[in-house]
Amino acid sequence: MTEGTAKPRQPSMADVARTAGVSAQTVSRALRASPNVDPETRKRVLAAVEQVGYRFNSAARALSSGRSRTIGLVLLASGGYYSRSAVTAGVEAAAGAAGYAVSIAAIAALDVGLMEQSLSRLADQGVDGFVIAVPLISVTRKMEDITRDIPTVTLDGSRTAGARVLGIDQREAGRVATRHLLDLGHRQVWHISGPDEWIEARRRRQGWQECLAEAGIEAPPPLEGDWSPDSGYRQGRILAMIPEVTAVFVAGDEMAFGVIRALRERGRSVPGDLSIVSVDDIALAAYCSPPLTTVRQDFYRYGEAAVALLLRGDDIGTGGPDAAPTLSVRASTAPPRSR
After folding, report:
1. DSSP 234-298
2. Cβ distance 167 to 150 under 8 Å?
């Protein structure tokens, strides 16, 4: 090859899929000798592999031989400590019950370069599938290529073309939370959002804005937190100084804990002076003072379901992608005193 000549592109699993007339997921299952692929389809896939000259990479060899028995879990190291722990526990429990190990890659920040590195490292280990719990809004070509060749499930986060998605409809979660407060008689709902680079935060904020607009209410400027109780505390101190605020939708339970403390320190009671509704329904939400009204997300169950999807194609009753959110109504919300 002369200098300046582009290196020929190696055939990919997508090329095999097009030639065989099946999906990339079916090719992956066929190469893993999955029982969900009928013999005729497997023969067609293997013939296509030979025809296009597809060479198995290290991950594909492990998949086809079944030697790996490892699931790769990609997490964000910061934000949502309880939700992250619950997802990990669910993945590890379900994987262990099926005889699989879990290899975890925790990225330090929402960065596509770090995401690519983590996926590449896990792929080189020959993992049988990915569970991605990182809320990146943008997805790169390299990420698409890796997750197209290896079965992938995402949990309310990065969407790639070949991935199955589990989780509640986050935009609807924002609408449900806001509608609950309006139905109680509050005439305005403020919002403390998660970080703007998180896809969940954007969608919850969008649901809040849409619900207010449908009620003919102009949304006040949202305040932004980072999912931590400390950020909720800081924003709660600001809200405590605005007398007309009677209702707040907080994007995450951990931030809501901080908001409640800040309000109490400033002499404002919950829900007497100000009602609070949140999202997540982590275990501590029911034991907050007062117990927190919140939109439920069953993170442990999602972790279990992600493994079931990878191994059996079964969502084990989670409701599938964008499932309808449910509200756990507790003592942190009430009608405004004026009503």
Report:
1. HHHHHHTT-TT--EEEESSHHHHHHHHHHHHHTT--TTTT-EEEEEE--GGGGGSSSPPEEEE--
2. no
pLDDT digit string, tens, across residues 152-193: 888 866 566 667 778 889 999 999 999 999 999 999 999 999
Q: Are 149 and 12 in contact (CB under 8 A)?
A: yes
Kindly state the helix (H) or strand (E) to which residue 102 belongs, with its residue range: strand 101-107
pLDDT in tens, 263-283: 999 999 999 999 999 999 999
pTM for this model (two decimals): 0.76
Select from 133, 159, 129, 114 the least CA-distant residue to 60. Answer: 129
CB 119 within 8 A of CB 144: no
Cα 54 from chain centroid (whole Å): 33
Sequence-ordered list of residues with C-beta below 8 angstroms from that of 209, at least 6 positions apart, any chain:
174, 219
